[in-house]
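Re: Re: token formats

Sure, here are both.
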Amino acid sequence: MSASEKLPQFSKPYWRELELPEFESLNEDLSVDVAIVGAGITGITAAYLLTKEGLKVAVLEADQVLNGTTGHTTAKLTAQHNIIYDEFINHFGEEKAKLFYESHMSAIQFVENKVNEKGIDCDFSKQDAFVYATTEEYREKLRTEWEAYQRLGIDGALKDTIPFNIPVKGALMMRNQAQYHPLKFLKSLLNEAVNSGCKVYEKTTATDIADDKTEPKVYVKGGHKVLCKHLIMASHFPFYDKIGLFFARMYADRSYAIAIKTDQEYPGGMYISADNPSRSIRSTPINGENLWIIGGESHKTGQGINTMKHYEAVAEFAEKTFGAKEIVYRWSAQDLVTLDKLPYIGPITEDREKVLVATGYKKWGMTTGILAGHILRDYVLNRDNPYKGLYGPTRFHADPDLKSTLTTVGDIAKHFIKGKLEYTDKDADDLQTGQGSVVMYNGQRAGAYKDESGKVYIVDTTCKHMGCECEWNAGEKTWDCPCHGSRYAINGEVIEGPALSGLDLLAEE
């Protein structure tokens, strides 16, 4: 059996094999101190911290708690975000580069402290992190990055090898990093917050804000509203984007992971490749053995090849390198990348201090979400925090922001036009069972999917955010927007924003 044939039929993350609490939808108007939109790592951390401060907090989640990017991670707790520190020194200076490192190390320390203090069983373990190079070009970049480590006082070392059958040219180690089971950890924080009075509402979609300069009112589908003194948008992509213009300041990126069993013994550590194709390696304990988590294959959402090819590439790498005898899980994640590669955490604009946002974590939400929860708490409580200035959403750096803005806007325009001009002669009747495709329906571009029973769903592929045309994602069986990353189910329902409403369902046949 080939590696691709071992892939599970359906996408499901290992982390979601966990019983999580369930909550009712909001069915009344509310008044609270802090409303938090989004129940992922940022929202739950902020809710926990603010509830502990005695504030009245409500969390609004459009889907289920911990089912977004937080539930689809590789769960590395690390300040080693691939090769970044030399770049950050050049763009922002040594002081800010060091603040970046310290902020993420503080997030790791928070998790470790809570695990020890509360006895949280979440498979937490200290690990060294490695970024490795397979080409001469990237070996030189590792050496430059090592010089940056030394300038910043980062505890690490330059190595010649890693303990796998991978022909590397070198590797850069960062000591005292960690890994864990994120949902087990966050479930503990969530339960404690709820027991302390925090209210959580699932299947409750925030759609708009009023009075965003004074006492924000959050409107949700169904007509109810939440009045608050502060609003925290922790919804991955900010659901309210009328003034922050985040759609022009970030792009959505997808990556892939599989969980395998192998007869090899895991040597410890967490690993990521510096060069392409991207590869990530770590393990997690399960029933007395190690489950190896192998990831990689980054690309912009809604763009590129058939997404199943990315799963197959990761599976073939795992088969060749580690002798995967079984692929137990497969899943993908969506991340948002900012213009300067730093997340946006803080007031949405300078004159709207009551509306706070946290977004653009790139692929490093496990530490970023934790530190964001702390920064947001300190904004709400009007406390000093050494990292506020580094991550403020209103910042702009001529280099690299201007160049990145032009690139991002140009890419969006290209895919907008491409979708409008695309022609296909394919018809929904041509689909095989389990297949989706762009088709022609009543003379217009549409999207069709035929499920396992032979039922066909036909949707208008025009994204409800800004009108780009969605493309079929075969790996997840979704319709994905190549412009701003909105994603939809086969029947058109919204899976991921910034879109707030679903694609038009044209037919069910």
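Second one below.
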Amino acid sequence: MSETMPKDENRNDGPGFPADFIWGAATAAYQIEGAWDVDGKGESIWDRFAHTPGKVRGGDTGDVACDSYHRFAEDIALVKAMGLGSYRYSIAWPRVQPGGRGGANPKGMDYYRRLTDAVLEAGLRPLVTLYHWDLPQELEDAGGWANRDTAARFGDFANLVADGLGDRVRHWVVLNEPKTFTSTGYWLGVHAPGRSDPRAFLRATHTANLAQGLGFRALKAHRADCEVGSAFDVAPMYPKSPAYRDIAAAERWHRFLNLWFLLPALHGRYPDGVLPVEEIDDLLGFLPGDDQRIKAPFDFVGLNYYSPWLVSDAPQGCDIPGLNCIGEWARGRGTLPKTDIGWDIDAQGFEDILLRMREETGNLPIEISECGAAFNTGPGADGEIDDQARIDFLRRHLQAMARAMQRGVPVRAFHHWSLLDNFEWAEGYSQRFGVVHVDFEHAQARKLKASGHWYARVAADHAIR
């Protein structure tokens, strides 16, 4: 914890940030906790998916992951040692409510109380995510997010968590990346629960929006002064050509991927021009009164950014009714450098999407709830991890964020994804996003990377060096 790096006096000062700007790091329960079947925890869809042969690279699972269930004090100490102010972590739904119904599991709730108390004792702000993709398997067996009843079950879960942690936590994220967990889980089938059913996917998006509204109201009912948002993964949608048809397709894709969960929360409606007007209610399972049920007047908006999309018109359509466009993620403008997972590095896209999203969020505070990159640099002969590529990535993206802030985008916080190298969903342990190296072969030993030292200096100086 006492490791330091000397300042590089040859670097010119970069953009400065307000003195009250919040620097943080983010994690997610299934990706770091391990302890998948201890202390009464139920099975999640990711437990089932990862234990199914062929679903995760290398046959990896989150059974142990970073073992943060037992080592959370070390993780919090790392956040504090970097001088950060905010720690974002999530609640594993089946750890609190094993089957997705009924009362709270006392040992599970006690774990999150101890974790939160440790965060507070370290002088950090807890930013707690209610749902980061680990649906109880019993609810999936009953239809999962495609079943409208799952929203009601989520509302019950939110009440349990608010009752257990509401006296400790003021800042909440209701859902993490609802666009991604519904599309990859129910349409594309590459993430848990591994279904490939476009109509189930559309129903799942509406159920998630209902859950978002219920979760928001549950948290507010327990503590009126809490601040509640959701974390939306957003990206600029660049047309593949200057042709009008591709420009129009990029706009449709923007509304579908960037606004599908934001507009319902803020305005109680879905974006126009995506699904056929005459079919949308049936496709989504939209019922009278849902325009009010899906509302969640957020106190802030969380945005996650990784890479842009390239979009073209698709006159032939696709398996989503009326959606006549095709998007290619991580294939941006021209030839761009890539991360080790193959995603385009496009810091300008970060500035572009922040400016575009402000058109929808207005003066609501924005927190960057995730931004980071996979670079798989390991320890050198001296044991140090010199991940200069991640430092370069961060420098460019923080500069882009600063430019957007100078142009009026009200960003108040930045959370690096991730604090730790962890279980990276279907990629298993093959991709490393952390500013902390985790040695998965030797008892999950942690070591701060060069990028972690660099990020600590940014947080201390409120400036990019």
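The chain has 16 helices and 13 strands. The first helix runs from residue 29 to 32.
- S.
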